[in-house]
Amino acid sequence: MSNFKSVRERRVGRKGLLLAFFAVVLSSCSSTFGGYRGATTQGQSEASLYQGFMITGIVVAGVTFLGLFYVLVRYRRRKGTNRIPSQRHSNLPVEVIYTVIPVLIVIGLFVFTVRSENKITQVSSNPNVSVDITAFQWGWRFTYSNGVSIVSQGANYPQLVLPANETTKVTLVSQDVVHGFYVPAFNFSRYALPGVTNYFDLTPTSTGTYVGRCSALCGLYHGEMLFSVRVVTPSQFQSWLTQQKAA
Amino acid sequence: MGYMSQTIVSHNSRESEPIRFNRPSMLGVGTMVWLSSELMFFSGLFAAYFTLRSGAKGPWPPAGIKLDVLQSGIFTLILVMSSVTMQKAVFEAEHGRRKSAIWWIVLTLTMGGSFVANQVVEWTHVAFSASTNAFGSLFFIMTGLHGLHVILGLVGMIFLIGRLAGRTDDPGELPVIQSLSYYWHFVDVVWIALYSVLFLTH
Amino acid sequence: MTIAEERNDLSNEEGGHEHEHGGPRGIYLWLTSTDHKVIGKSYMYTALIFMLIAGAMAMLIRAQLTGPNNHIVSQQTYNELFTIHGSMMLYLFAGPFAFGGFANYILPLQIGAPDMAFPRLNALSYWLFVTGGITMLSGFFTSGGAAAFGWVSYAPLSSYSNAPGAGPDLWIVAIALTGFSGIFTAVNLITTAFYLRAPGLTMFRLPIFTWNMIVTGMLILIAFPILTAAMIMLYADRHFGAHFFTVSGGGSPVMWQNLFWFFGHPEVYILALPYFGIVSEVIPVFSRKPIFGYKGLVFATLAIAGLSTGVWAHHMFTTGTVLLPFFSALSLLIAVPTGVKVFTWIATMWGGDIEFKTPMLFVIGFLFTFVMGGVTGVMLAAPPIDFAVHDTYFVVAHFHQVLAGTAVFGGFSGFFYWYPKLTGRMYRESLGKLQFWMAFVGFSLTFFPQYLIGLRGMPRRVPVYLVSDHVTFLNQLSTVGAFLTGASFIVWLINMWISWKKPVAAGDNPWDGHTLEWATSSPPPHHNFVSLPPIRSARPLWDANHPEHADYKNQGHGSVPREREEQK
Ligand code: HEA
Ligand code: HEA
Ligand code: CUA
Ligand SMILES: [Cu+2]
Questions:
Q1: Is residue A139 located within the same domain as residue A100?
Q2: I need a surface site. Which of A100, C225, C254, C477 has the fewest CB within 10 A?
Q3: Is the pTM of this model over 0.95?
Q4: CB within 8 A of A57, min separation 6: which ones?
Q5: Other CB atoms closer than 10 Å to residue C289's CB: what's the count?
Q6: Same domain, yes or no: A115 and A172
Q7: Each residue of C95-114: pLDDT tens digit?
Q8: Ligand 3: does its nearest atom lie under 6 Å from the Cβ of A222?
């Protein structure tokens, strides 16, 4: 027996893998693999990228583990034997294959990454709404362009109100240390850095209330630097804004 | 053990071999490897310098920073020349002229010492401090850490002089003087870079 | 003969401690020893003790997180705990265990050298490391407590006004000390590997373990000095009013992140490569085959090192200050050489005669855990995905899988593999296997739930969370796993104790090893070798013990594919 004897066996293995692959792909197109579907257009773009990566990851890890498992079972030492296996130590075609295939996969992943990334990081020049967000130890200040301002007060978490299906441009700064503006349901976070101003767009797609939190360690009460985001219809948003202005 | 074996040459054998200049000693190799980390260390400082410089809001260096370019330039020249004298000392030592080597090292030591002295004078005379602004911080940290390296080299030279003045059959002294010269050249080159970014940007 | 001259050099360096022949005895000789074997062992055991202490901190962390609003430790203590847990695990365990411990002990043996190039410098490294460790731990005993700004110590949270007290200063000093220790060890190992190789041992005949240590050393020389420089700047900011990281004086907090991660990312490969090296020794021996694709493996190691200096900003995707496509592309690319390694290891086992002794089981645990963590690392390398899970438990799960995969599974694989060589004694196989299964199940149970916890939005470094996050049960699972892992280390301690009290002699070469460390007695004599086998390939000892299957007769690609039954 040579060590690469089982060409036939390998074919069978490949067919099995192909089947497994399709099973995974089919069953997972609807799954978000534990992630959020994304309550903004940006977040949805992330969700589909994540889905693609997850499927690729399952296939890559699956193939690797199948190979590993096969080798471990097939070539385990059997009781009472003491053989010296073939001392083969290289095989150029095999080495080229296991280098080139990952390169191709990585190129593919990169292309999708860049596309998604461009969508998510795009900042519109004429947004429907603009909000200035300031992070500080340990709270948030949301200031709308008409001067309405909402601030953390004691144990009351502030609420950021956004209109659905409209684009809000956020201007993010920090007053002291590094904080992170993070809304898990939006699949998005961005640091608030002292000395740096960050801009990003949020385009919520469905109404509802979501948890937001500080993601970057910022001192003693980092874990309690929460806020919430309420997404309402544009008309509700306008009336809320004027009401706040009056108050 | 059942295999043919090659016997290890006893590590105690001390037959003298002719000195060879073409292959660096083990200490020399170690020194060069270590200097590569020193290079990265100063690279970190330079990275900080260029980051802060590119982020500066006003002129660079900021208004109010005045340095004596000429005086430091003279001592820069002295430090560079001390590399030459150091190398001369190495040549002398390689040809077994230990007395002469000692004198060249003493000369190098004096030149390096005068450089440090000038730096002390400079530190006490500049009108800004490490807490004035980012340039001040960079100036003191960069010149300070470099100065520390120079002082370390000077201390090394003192020990080296002691060693050269001692036993004549000391087999380790040539690698030591060579290694110290690598270090000294390195410290010099770093200073040239430091002088250009800190002083010549006016 | 050149070798004679080199050996001469060495004996000069060591000067007058011939009295140490036969191995040092007693505490005084241990304190003053410059023998690489003594230092290597001390490194290993010290690092393992630090691991147990840091692991005990992890137990407290996990206990706190079993409920959304526990009060087992205070918020301040919690922050100190994860900061010191992370710092100790990385700086005082994972790095020194391999690069101070295994490298020191094994590398000179593998290259047939009598000691390290600079034995006294080696001792200095060890004592710097111990001092650094004690310094870091002593932070807990200061009035303000230990450092509490995370192992990354982001400015300006680490400034004096935000982190007053001596604890943070002790942390800074500790990092600087261990940093110098690492740099000195790197200088020593690289010089040793280039200068003290036995005749016949060319660069491309070096064992992969040695290769990985050389490359790790190079990475240390590149990365650690930057950390040292950053620490000095941080210290200057804290105490001399400097403005490196303060916006008001023209400094830049983001610069800290750039400097730190320029070190920090190579650091994670500094922690991984040595263990890759260990695995590359264990797999061939327990498969009774040469490593597959030797040169590919060497170039993959160099490629990982090269790429790892250009990916640091993937830790800063959410700062909005870095070039996303560039750092994303390079980060994704690292999957390729790493994949080459994984496939190489599988190909080495392919067609082999695999024996599932404890070291080999740990290798399998390593492969499984590491590949899982690596694949999620690839996800993090995509900025959009990172935006969603940055600073959440998804990241915590990623890095524990790669780190535990390497430092714990790879580390214990090497520990059991070389334990007979280190001590001359055998461990108990059944206890070793029990430890493996408990650790493997425990780790998986700890960290798989954490991916989901992260995806549901639980940030890291928080002592409390919300009931509405739906992560309570997952956190409890994780804690159960953590305690199971903890128990596995108790099994290990019992194993060590039994093997110490009731020694079973191991013999010089219990595994039919391939490399030179197995060609001497267990434990080796003071200057390591009495005689060396001729070195005509990368596996001199295999060649000597199996002349019919010797590598030097088999230099063509894949010839002699014959198998034979052999009765021993
Ligand atoms: C041993 C340590 C180690 C190792 C080896 C790695 C390996 C990798 N890491 Fe990880 N990482 C850490 C330790 C490590 N990491 C730590 C400690 C942190 C957190 C620091 C902190 O914030 O506290 C971190 C954080 C971290 C981040 C930042 C996350 C964040 O903070 O938001 C990113 C982002 O890109 C990342 C990426 C990667 C990648 C791409 C790899 C790759 O090298 C992985 C490559 C391996 C594989 C991919 C598996 C095997 C390959 C194959 C089977 C081939 C085929 C595969 C494909 C084609 C996909 N890591
Ligand atoms: C090699 C690296 C390494 C290793 C092995 C581990 C091992 C473990 N880690 Fe750690 N961890 C890090 C590196 C590592 N960690 C880093 C870098 C961070 C980030 C820090 C930061 O955010 O800044 C982190 C953070 C971190 C967190 C996140 C904290 C937070 O963000 O809030 C958690 C939470 O679950 C955790 C858990 C664990 C657990 C349960 C283990 C277990 O696997 C541990 C198992 C070991 C033991 C349990 C030892 C058992 C000991 C005994 C039984 C005897 C005790 C005896 C004596 C004291 C003498 N770790
Ligand atoms: Cu603000 Cu964490
Ligand atoms: Cu990284």
A1: no
A2: A100
A3: no
A4: C375, C376, C378, C379
A5: 29
A6: no
A7: 999 999 999 999 999 999 99
A8: yes
What confidence tier does A30 reach under pLDDT thresholds 50, 70, 90? low
Compute the average pLDDT of residues B71-90.
Answer: 95
The predicted-structure confidence for C233-285, as pLDDT tens digits, reads as follows 999 999 999 999 999 888 999 999 999 999 999 999 999 999 999 999 999 99
Residue A64 Cα, gap to closest chain C Cα (Å): 8
Tell me: pLDDT of C425 over 90.
yes
**Chain segment A84-123, per-residue pLDDT in tens:** 888 888 889 999 999 999 999 999 999 999 999 999 999 9
Structure tokens that stand for C48 in this block = 């393992």
Specify whether A137 is located in the same domain as A238: yes
Q: What is the pLDDT of residue A212?
A: 95
Q: How far is it, in rounded angstroms, from Cα C270 to Cα B171?
A: 37
Q: Which domain holds residue A68?
A: 31-75+91-121
> What mean pLDDT do residues A208-216 have?
95
A neighbours by CB contacts (3+ pairs under 8 Å):
C
Degrees (nearest 5) of the Cα angle C551, C553, C557? 70
Has residue A84 been placed in a domain? no
Examine the domain organization and report whether A114 and A195 are in the same domain. no
Task: For residue A208, list its beta bridge partners.
Answer: A231
Residue A81 CB neighbour total at 10 angstroms: 10
Candidates A89, A117, A221; nearest CB to C291? A89
> Among A23-37, B7-21, C331-345, which stretch is predicted with the lowest mean pLDDT?
B7-21
Indicate whether A22 belongs to any domain. Answer: no
Choose among B66, B77, B52, B56: nearest CA to B142: B52
Give the integer Cα–Cα distance in Å for C422 and C522. 7
Residue A233 placed within a domain: yes
C488-539 pLDDT, tens digit each: 999 999 999 999 999 998 889 999 999 999 999 889 988 898 888 888 888 8
CB A209: neighbour CB atoms within 10 A?
A: 12
Is the domain of A207 the same as that of A232? yes
Does A106 lie in the same domain as A139?
A: no
pLDDT of C566 reads 38
Residues C68, C472 contacting (CB under 8 angstroms): yes
pLDDT digits (tens, 9 = 90+) for C22-40: 444 577 777 788 899 999 9
Residue that wins the pLDDT comparison between C550 and C180:
C180
Is C250–B57 a contact, with Cβ atoms under 8 angstroms apart? yes
Cis before C156? omega within 30: yes
- If you count DSSP H runs as helices and E runs as strands, how many of each does chain A have, helices first? 4, 11
Instruction: Check which CATH number belongs to the domain holding A228 and give it.
Output: 2.60.40.420
Question: Are C157 and C179 within 8 A, CB to CB?
Answer: no
H or E segment to which residue C235 belongs: helix C208-239
Handedness of CA C335, C337, C338, C344 (dihedral sign): positive
Residues in chain C closer than 8 A to B14 (CB atoms):
8, 11
Domains and CATH numbers, chain C: 36-557 (1.20.210.10)
What pLDDT band is residue B117 in, cutting at 50, 70 and 90?
very high
In total, how many domains does chain A have? 2
A116 & A143 share domain: no
ipTM of the complex: 0.91
Mark which residues 167-226 of C lie under 8 Å from B by CB: 183, 186-188, 190-191, 194-196, 199, 220-226
Residues A105 and A142 in one domain: no
**Residue B178 to residues A48, B130, B183, C392, C421: CA-CA distances in angstroms?**
62, 36, 9, 53, 39
Q: Which atom number of ligand 3 is nearest to the Cα of residue A135?
A: 1
d(CA C229, CA C143): 28
User: Which residues of chain A lie closer than 8 angstroms to C290, CB-CB?
Assistant: 87, 89
Cis peptide before B61 (omega within 30 of 0): yes
- Do residue C328 and residue A117 have CB atoms under 8 angstroms apart? yes
